[in-house]
From TrEMBL:
Keywords: DNA recombination, DNA-binding, Transposition. It comes from Nicotiana sylvestris. This is Uncharacterized protein LOC104214272. The keyword Nucleus does not apply. InterPro entries: MULE_transposase_dom, Transposase_mutator. It holds the Pfam family MULE. PANTHER family: POLYPROTEIN, PUTATIVE-RELATED, TRANSPOSASE, MUDR, PLANT, MULE TRANSPOSASE DOMAIN PROTEIN-RELATED. The keyword DNA-binding applies. One of its GO terms (biological process) is DNA transposition. Residues 11-105 form the MULE transposase domain.
Length: 216
C-alpha cells in the first residue's frame, strides 16, 4: 500500500547535503505509516535548495500523489530556505508545521537555560490554549523577551493546541524524516548514480520486508 491507500496525509520535507565528491543537496519527502515508521515518497538531487528547486520538487510530488491544492495535507519541515514560499505556490491549501527541535535551536541562540528549554517544549506539547498560555506566562517570568521572540513562529505551526483538527496527528518533530536521512547515510558518500541506485534498492527491500511481515 502506498501513500494514496495507506499512509497518513503527513509529509516530512528536508534537504540533505551530499557527502561525496559530487556537490549538491538531496531533497526528500517522507511519509509516515500507521506504526509511525518512515515511508520514503520521493527524493531528488539539486545544486542547492532555493524557492525554485523546492517548487520544482513539490510540483513533481503534487503530480505523483494527486495532492490537488494541498487540501487535507500537512507538511513538516525545518523551515528550509525557499520551502515555505514554494509550498504556498504549489500547494496553497496545505498546512505547514515547523519542527520544534529546529525552532528550539534557532531560539536558543539568544535564550539558553534548561528551564527555558523545558517551558518551550511544554508549550509545544500543550493540548489546549489555556495550558499553552500558562507555559508562556511561566517563560515570561524568566525572560519576557524570550516569549516575544518565540511567538514570531505562529503557534498553529508548532503547538498542539492550535493544530488543524482535520488531520489528527500530534507530531511536533521531524524525527521520521531524520530517521530516513540517517538510514541513507552511507549512500550519500557515493557517486550520484550509485547513490540513487542504492537508495532505490534500500527502499524496495524495505517495502518488500514490510509487506512480508503483514502477510505472515
Amino acid at each position: 500500500m502506498g501513500y494514496k491507500e495507506g499512509l497518513r496525509p503527513f509529509i516530512g520535507l528536508d534537504a540533505i547535503f551530499l557527502n561525496g565528491k559530487a556537490k549538491g543537496q538531496l531533497l526528500v519527502a517522507v511519509g509516515q505509516d500507521n506504526m509511525n515508521h518512515f515511508y520514503p515518497l520521493a527524493w531528488a538531487i539539486v545544486d542547492r535548495e532555493t524557492k525554485r528547486s523546492w517548487t520544482w520538487f513539490l510540483e513533481l510530488l503534487h503530480n505523483s500523489l494527486d495532492l490537488n491544492m494541498g487540501n487535507g495535507v500537512t507538511f513538516m519541515s525545518d523551515m528550509q530556505k525557499g520551502l515555505m514560499e514554494a509550498i504556498k505556490t504549489v500547494l496553497p491549501e496545505a498546512k505547514h508545521r515547523f519542527c520544534v527541535g529546529h525552532v528550539e535551536s534557532n531560539w536558543c541562540k539568544e535564550y539558553r537555560g534548561l528551564e527555558m528549554k523545558k517551558l518551550l517544549w511544554w508549550s509545544a506539547w500543550a493540548t489546549y490554549a489555556e495550558d499553552f498560555k500558562d507555559q508562556l506566562s511561566k517563560l515570561g517570568e524568566l525572560k519576557e523577551a524570550a516569549v516575544t521572540v518565540l511567538l514570531k513562529y505562529p503557534p498553529q505551526s508548532w503547538c498542539r493546541a492550535y493544530f488543524d483538527t482535520v488531520y489528527k496527528n500530534q507530531g511536533v518533530g521531524n524525527n521520521f524524516t531524520e530517521s530516513f536521512n540517517s538510514w541513507i547515510l552511507e549512500a550519500r558518500y557515493k557517486p550520484i548514480i550509485k547513490m540513487l541506485e542504492d537508495i532505490r534498492l534500500k527502499v524496495m527491500n524495505q517495502l518488500r520486508n514490510h509487506e512480508d511481515k503483514v502477510r505472515t
